[in-house]
Each structure stands twice: as C-alpha cells, then as structure tokens.
Amino acid sequence: MLRVVRTLLVALVLVGVGVVAGQALERVYGWGEPPEAYATLADAVRTVEAEYVDEMTPQTLSESAIHSLLSGLDPHSSYISTDRMKRVQESFEAEFEGIGVTYERIRAASAPDTAVVVSVIPGGPSDEAGLRSGDRLVRTDSTSLVGLPDRRIQSLLKGPRGTTVNVTVRRPGTAGLSTHAVTRDRIPLNTVDAAYMMDAQTGYIKLNRFARTTHREMRDALTQLKADGMQRLVFDMRDNAGGLMRVAERVADEFLHDDQLVVVARGRDGAVLDEYRTERAGLFEQGPMMVLVNGRSASASEIVAGALHDHSRALVVGQRTYGKGLVQRQYELQDGSGLRLTIARFYTPSGRAIQRPYETGAAVTRPAAYIDSTDANSSANHRAAGSGGIMPDRVIERDSLYQMAQRLVQQPAMRAAMRDWIDRNIPSLRDAWAGRPEAFLATYELPKDVIDRLVHGGAGSAGQRSAERALGRPEPYGITERTSQDTYVQLANTDRGTILLQNALTSMVARRLFGMAEWIRMQNKVDPTVQATPQLWPHATTRAQTYANRR
Predict the structure, then answer these.
(1) Same domain? 64 vs 140
(2) Which terminus, N or C, of the chain has the lesser number of Cβ atoms within 10 Å?
(3) For residue 332, what pLDDT band results from cuts at 50, 70 and 90?
(4) CATH number at residue 123
C-alpha cells in the first residue's frame, strides 16, 4: 500500500505540472488542450484526492506539484506565491504605499522582539508626522506590534494611499509613549543609495538594484555629479543582485557610444532570441571609469559590467561576480501567484556566458563562433575568461581584518550596545551635527573610551561587566562570547584594527543621524576596494582614451 501511495504522489506531482504548465502555456502561447499524456496523470491526481489517507487541500497539492516541477530545472526557475508576488512587484516598481520608514528587529532572549526605526524617508509621511530614527514601534491603532513577525508588521504599516494609521512609539530618552497620525502615501524605494564627489574630480555612485526608476535615478545622479565637476566615475555595483534587464541596458547606454552591443540572449540550441545595442546619447560616454563588483553582483549588474568590460570602456575592480546570466520571464497564474522561468542565457558582447555552471544539471558553454566584430581589439583575457561571471581587471583580495570588523559590528550584542549608546546620546549628537553631514564625515570620531569599554572587557564576567558599563545599564547584556571577545581584542590591539572598528561603529551613528548615503560614505573611507581606486586611475584613463579613439 505504501508503494502505491508513493507512486500516486509522484503522479500527483506530475499531473500538477501538467495542469499548471498546460494552463500557463495555453494562455501564453495559445496552445489548445494539454497533450494526451497528461490524461493519465489527471486520473492519478483524482485517485489521490479521493483515496489518500489524509485530506489535502487543492492549494497545497498544487503548490507542491509546482515546486516539484521546478526542482528538476535550473536553480533559478521558481514558484512565486501570491503574497510574495506582491512584494516582488513592489521591488520592481520601486515604490509601495505605506508610512515611509525602514526598521530592524531588536531581538531579546527574555522579551518579545521589538521593531526599531532605522531611517525615516525625508519628506515622507512619517517624517511629516514627526517619527524619528531610533523610535520603537509599539502599536498601530489598537494592535500591538511587539513580538509580531515582520510580515504582520509590514501589513499593518502598509495600506492604501490616503488612509491614516495611528503609530504609537517609545522614544529613547523620553518618558512615556507618543502617538503619531501618519497618512499613508506612495513611498519610493530608491535604487541609488549614494551619489557624491569623492574629491574635486571623482564622482561615486552606489546602485543597489535595477528597478523601473533606476534609469531616471542614474541620470539624475550623473547630471548632478557633472555639475559638481565630475571628470571620472566610480560606479559601485557590489552586492547588486540585479533586477530588470531592460533597465540595465539603458544604464549601460549612458556610458557607451551608439550602436554598440550590450548583451545577447540565446535560447535552445544557441539560437539568438534577442540582443540589445545602444541607441541614444549617454551622459558619460567619455572619461575614465571604474566599475566595482563582488561575488554578490549578479544578473543585471553583470550585464552592465560585462558590456563595459568587453568594450574596454571601464576598468572592472573587485572580485569575480556571482555568475547569474539567465533570461527569466515571469508568468502570472490564475490565482495571482507566478512562475519565474528561465527561457535563455545571457552572453556578453565578446560571447562569454555570464551564467556559471550549475552545481547540478547541464553545464554552460560559450559558443565558439560568437565574438562581436566591434570588439575585435579587446584584450584576449576578456574573451578567454570562462566559468561564468565577470572576472575583474584588477582583483582586490578580501581583507581579513576589514571583514573581521564588519562581522563583529553585526553581532547582536555589539549592535544592541551601540544602539543604546546612540539612544542616550542622540539629543546632543543632533544638536551638534544636524544639517552638517559634511562636517560630521570629515571630523567626527566615536570617543575612544566608548570603544574601549565595549572592546577591552576580557573574558567571562569581566567582559560582561565592561559591556554593561558601556551601555550604562545594569543588565546582563553585552559581549559575553569568548570568541567574540578575543576578536575584539585582536582588532583593538592593532592601529589599523582600531581604525576599522571605530569606522564601522561611527558609520552606525552616521546612519542614525543622516541616513543610508552618509553611512556608505563613512564606510568608504576605509573600504579596501574603494581605497584601491586612486592607484588605478592611470589604467582606467588609458582604457578610456583607447575607447574614445575607436569611435
């Protein structure tokens, strides 16, 4: 009997595949009835529904079938539930309707989680209503937010534009609770995290993903930087997981001459399904340029980096990119859920496959005959680098000390200690630095005695007491793990380690005071990849001159 049930469940999976895929393909491609082979599977699913020992809802069976279908394909084809589909659409649209805050969770072993506001979008609904970074979200209207999961908190904060929600908060340093009436509105999800002048001639742009607003944001940033005197650009796409392909193509068009190949999509048997060539005048087609990438740069960011790399337009710096070069199309199903299916693979102008070989399944190979004629003078290493992803011109090795400092400040105990220190000092910090981000970034340093009290705690109870002193509170709360204590001491016992730790902690103050852009600017002061760029400008300049002479 068990074997029969297992057989029927396998059949159920397949019939689910047939039903769902058949419906989707009929809608998309105009197919008629599903193939006759699915009829047997339909009989099997009816048998399982009628005879299986446990009652299963059609929704559960359907989703299980779809997941099983996609599990046999590439690692990136996926099923998107109805709820998640809404969040995906928000990400692509780069806006949603809500109150305009970002928050993080304060997790405590002996108390329910609390949501604390990390940033308030300037000019947004919460800003106008008087909410501030650091506020603890206590309730909306009559519903407590304490201890709720993120999805529930977000559902209570979001809502139709024009509706009002009463948000009650506890503000550190202020007695009692305060309630703010916030009228929801459209909230932009900015994709340009930072755009500023690193020096008198060097602009910097940090892009976190490719959404519908990205091209406009990029043009605005380039226009402003050029007005500020930019002659060369650092374009940072590290940790950029991708997004909309057409937007990536438009971004690449801002840096390349007209009629240059950006990317090629090849489907079954290597057939060209689509290709994109530049077609309009860009804002920065001349001048030295570097593109920063790392192992979390993927998909659309790899398309841009690959095009600028192959055409020798920019010097690519950092670590090899992730290697996700699949053309995916999203199909909406009848219940509002969706399928994200791979229909082709992306190739750079010189014919390199961006997709790295799958851990399982068919390997990706580069078509030997495909090299774009416009790239005939490109360096051989551009075409020869295989195994997927974009290999930088200049690899910046991982800096273990820098990574150590970054990991340690993300430890819950350190974040909690710093959060409490900022809470207690935020009034004086705002009095001293409000409206003066440039002065803060140039001169402020977290007091050394604060770091000392956090770091030099030693082991066991002494370390715990040291952390408690830094917090200014007698709670059993601090850096108590021996491994973490040893790492803190290791950092603090070297001059550079102290600088890195101080910068990471000071960046948290900058974010509370001014927001994401200043947090990035502060971290860039010691970031190994960013700090390597000044020495590389001669190479980027030579590349830019070579590119300009080809026109």
Answers:
(1) no
(2) N
(3) confident
(4) 2.30.42.10
In this structure, the strands spanning 111-120 and 101-108 are: antiparallel
Q: Would residue 526 count as lying in a domain?
A: no
3-class DSSP state for residue 96? strand
* Residue of 454, 471, 451 lying closest to 463 (CA atoms): 454
Least confident of 5-19, 230-244, 427-441, 519-533: 5-19
Dist CA 225 CA 258 (whole Å): 22
More confident position, 471 or 279: 279
In which residue are the tokens 């974010």 written?
511
- Distance between CA atoms of 369 and 263, rounded to whole angstroms? 16
- Residue 162 and residue 119 share a domain: yes
pLDDT of residue 91: 59
Helix (H) or strand (E) holding 206: strand 202-207
Our count of domains for the chain comes to 4
For 372-412, how does the pLDDT look when each residue is reduced to its tens digit (9 = 90+)? 333 334 444 444 445 789 999 999 998 999 999 998 888 87
Domain match, 311 and 266 both: yes
- Both 68 and 132 in one domain: the answer is no
Position 27 scores a pLDDT of 40
Assigned domain for 332 exists: no
Confidence of residue 304 (pLDDT cuts 50, 70, 90): very high
Q: What is the DSSP string of 294-327?
A: -TT--THHHHHHHHHHHTT-SEEEES------EE
The residue assigned the tokens 């910068």 is: 503
In a domain, 505, yes or no: yes
Q: Point out the domain boundary residue: 352, 380, 396.
A: 396
Q: Which helix (H) or strand (E) holds 143?
A: strand 143-144
The answer, yes or no, to whether residue 473 has pLDDT greater than 60, is no
Per the structure, the complete domain to which residue 451 belongs is given by 400-514
* Residue 13 CA: distances (Å) to CA of 19, 22, 107: 10, 14, 39
> Could you tell me the two tokens for 267?
């489907």
Q: Is residue 65 packed enough to be buried (19+ CB in 10 Å), middle (13-18) or exposed (0-12)?
A: buried
Query: What is the CA 239 to chain-centroid distance, rounded?
Result: 6
Q: Taking the model in full, what pTM does it have? A: 0.78
- In this structure, are 32 and 120 located in the same domain? no
The contacts of residue 87 (CB under 8 Å, 6+ apart) are: none
Token duo for residue 329: 């199309």
Same domain for 382 and 484?
A: no
